[in-house]
Amino acid sequence: MLSGSPKVLIMYASYGEGHYQASKALEASFHRSGITDVELLDLMAEAHPLLNEMTKFVYMQSFKTMPMLYGWVYNATKDLQPDTSLLSVLNSLGMRKLEQAIASIEPDLIIHTFPQLAMPKLLKKTGLKLPLINIVTDFDLHGRWVHPGVDRYYVATEELMQDLVRRGIPAERVLVSGIPLKPDFGRSPSMATEQLCRLDPSRRTILIMAGAFGVMQGIRDICETLLAKDNYQVIAVCGRNKELHRKLDQELGQHPHFHLFGYISEIAQLMQLSHCIVTKPGGITLSESLVSRLPIFVYRPVPGQELNNALYLESKGIAHIANDPGTLIRQIDGLLLNEERLAHVYGEIDLVRRPEAAKTIVNDIIEQWLTPAPSLAGSTSLL
């Protein structure tokens, strides 16, 4: 049984923005539930800062310059077992730093929003007893997420649950919760939201997101083609790509129906103002779009988890995939100008969207491990 206020450690990685955003959403949900002692740890950044920066650089460059190679590596290693030599090496990175963090923080429970699973090996080495939680932040499952030492998996879809069971994880350890998001997604626009851009109410608003690091290619051509039509207006978000922001501002900044942003925290508000989204298919952005009831257009997805995310939502009738501007524009026209098709897509979105994912996850964790209960007291030993 717990004594005193429970402590939660959430481990993430800064490869892209999604894992951190999921961690912050969980932290906020824990706080709303009265659990305020929550620590976030970017293990690779803390343990191996130089290696972390190098691997982040390679990761981002592979998206831009070698997407086929990245996809090949991802798919070739997708079914790796946790006891393979490669995963054993990867999961050993940061062990010493993690052991120090555990001794300092003394958590009652550990959550992973990134598959850097050093904890099972550390628990075996030290004899500690701590519940381990995995939050799978994609609509696709890679072998790095799977380990028999993990006590609970929270996933986005029934298909992911079935995949985990196929890989030997007992069904009772898996909950289909959705991917955790901050609570401002899915709300109705407010007066403050509408002041972010001066939009023309007679036009459909298309939100184009290049990702946190602005790596989606071909944005200028897409914006230019859409703005040439008299029924669309465009909101473009460049993330941290200052060069992309400069070019778009220089070439399109004076257009009355073009609204340009760099890295901005009000993504939920921009989604509230939009009729659809053109995006790279990261798991978090796709979940934000679903909760915001936005039809999704995926442009030139990188092979690997992002293409697999897009293919899953395409199979549900929610996402469209395009690899050239002409196809993308035809897809947008074919949906936004057809009210019957649009209503059908909204219906499909409503079957998959899970706006309460963070609350569902936190409530389940509290019920399972962080609330003293006779049924758990004899079987759970916590620090």
From TrEMBL:
GO cellular component entries: membrane
GO molecular function annotation: hexosyltransferase activity
Domain Diacylglycerol glucosyltransferase N-terminal: 19-180
Listed InterPro entries: Diacylglyc_glucosyltr_N, Glyco_trans_28_C, Glycosyltransf_28_UgtP
Domain Glycosyl transferase family 28 C-terminal: 223-344
Major localisation: membrane
Location of the protein in the cell: Membrane
Highest taxon in the source lineage: Bacteria
Keywords: Glycosyltransferase, Transferase
GO BP annotations listed: glycolipid biosynthetic process
Family: Belongs to the glycosyltransferase 28 family.
The name this protein goes by in its record: Diacylglycerol glucosyltransferase
Lineage: Bacteria, Bacillati, Bacillota, Bacilli, Bacillales
